[in-house]
Design a protein that fits this description.
Blueprint (H helix, E strand, L loop, with lengths): L2 E3 L18 E3 L4 E3 L15 H5 L5 E3 L7 H15 L1
Length: 84
Amino acid sequence: MALTISEECINCDVCEPQCPNDAIYMGPEIYIIEPEKCTECVGHHDEPQCMAVCPVDCISPHPEWNETPEQLMEKFKLLQQQKK
């Protein structure tokens, strides 16, 4: 399941550099997580790093992107292949 950032985001800039998949970027008003690139850090870390560092807890599972851990791992592998 991909993650999403809510309107409570204070644009503190701590989540973006923590994302190993470069899935987080600054949108028009708040940071945005690109669901196609978000693996919840599967393949990189034991927990989503953006959630771990967010000071206002504005990051949560995306309601429209339900993925199993196996699907997240497959997405991770595909993203790694694309980096080569």
